[in-house]
Fold each of these.
Amino acid sequence: MNTIRVKELYQLHGTASTNVSEDASLEDVITLLGHEPRLQGVFLTDSEQKFSGVITPMDLAKWAHIQMFDGKGRREIPISTFYRIADARKARDLPRSDYGSLGVRETDSLQTALDKMLNYEEDIIPVLDNEGHILGDLRLSEVLMKALEVGKQRKEA
């Protein structure tokens, strides 16, 4: 599987993400995801239209839990994370700070992409050009279908 490149897969199932400015209000992002349940992620872009972060439905579920229930009943959450989520007003306020390196290039191996998915615990990651602009997204569903195909080929060999 090391020779499989991201460019072979990332457009198989269309897109499940959208791009918004990191300056967009969190309310706008929530409304967008609320009206588009097929979306698995909102990729944030900076003033140069380059990838700067991602907001997933689970990020918003954490936000909703803190807003409605003050995070009570949830396992311990670091206080810095609690306040980052509770105080979020703009799209850029919600994502973890390490999401900037989440993206992959079309020429990256599928192993690199899957490693990032596992390391970040995300099932959708952005595919970027060399300047950091978003070309599309790679979804776990696309990786899974390729894994089935590779498994069948190995059994036949």
Amino acid sequence: MMHSDRIIHDPVRDNLPFGYELGAVARSIAAGEGFSSPLRWFRTGPTAWFGPVYPYLVAGVFKLFGIYSYTSYLVLQTLNCAFTALTCIPIYLAGKRSFGTGVALCASWLWVFLPTAIYFPLLWIWDTSLSALWMALLLYATLKLRDSARITDWIGYGALWAVGAMINPALVAVLPALGVWLVLEYRKRALPWLRVAAVGSLVFLAGISPWATRNYVVFHKLIPFRSNLGLELWLGNNAETVDNDSWDLHPNDDLKEGLKYKQLGEIEYMQQKQHQAFAYMRAHPAHDALLAFHRFISMWLGIWDPVQDFWASLSPLMRSAEVMTVLYPLFTLLGALFASRSRNPEIFPYLAVIFFFPLVFYLTHASLRYRFPMDPVMIVLASNGILSVVASITDRWRGLRAPALRSRPTH
């Protein structure tokens, strides 16, 4: 067995689809070393880099089919594709409830052909596809709960949020807004809100407490979800950050940073990086605001470089995907505007997701992959935008055609 201070050579170093840090943690679990060692360089001991659900899922596959094996890779890809395919169900249900069957069908079929929904499940062994499925489930559950004050429904809702937090803690960013919306809806209808909201909250807290307790026992620090925010902030806010982030400084890519992580330990390393990030943000507010703007564009369009710089090098298929990627947020915005103008009573949860979920990524680093968990919500709004534009054009055409028909001579 190798000593912990020696560099370890694992297949994951040349096998990015296994998820880098996530694959390394899953390897540790499958090898009987516990939830530990996210870096490819060394065995570094216990970690809280991720929520526990997806790493344990990957570890289970490793146990059954081999650590970093090709069979495991195919099984995990298949699971990711299954998660993405199942996302059609809550997309359809949410779209039908909020906007009608036409929008529901349009959203479901657009999801089938959405480039990111085809690409990410195959590219990354990560929680991305499962997070998108869970976001769609949380949205539909929130809409359904608007009509129910049953204790059992709120117990299920709290459990759904707890599992979501253990899959991808970024999902929790929208919980306060959706919770407040439900309470206000209950108060409007004179429904008993305090008891059911308290029950749902207690179930959520009970659901996340085992993980938080484990982290407190191991690290002597309250870490409800994950520990790596300081590093993510620093990667997006330091003197070497260009446009979006500085991934070459990541401790999984930079041996010097990897050694620093090992020597300081995870918690002290993350605290140091958070301090450095905040110091840089305070010292360079204008540059940091520009970086946030770059990340905003990258989050919504997936690009920052001018289109003419890379358009000629794209295949026709990739050009079509790029056009769809740019039009997609536009129709999402139109769908939200049409729904707001028509005073749709259920528009707020959709708006809450697309506003609150990406906020942390504007501060850290952004990409279409990080946006993907809210794509199911966007696809419903985009479908509403597309069908609303079609309906508006059709109505106008009929309005122009009607006088012409009336002016025709009769025989």
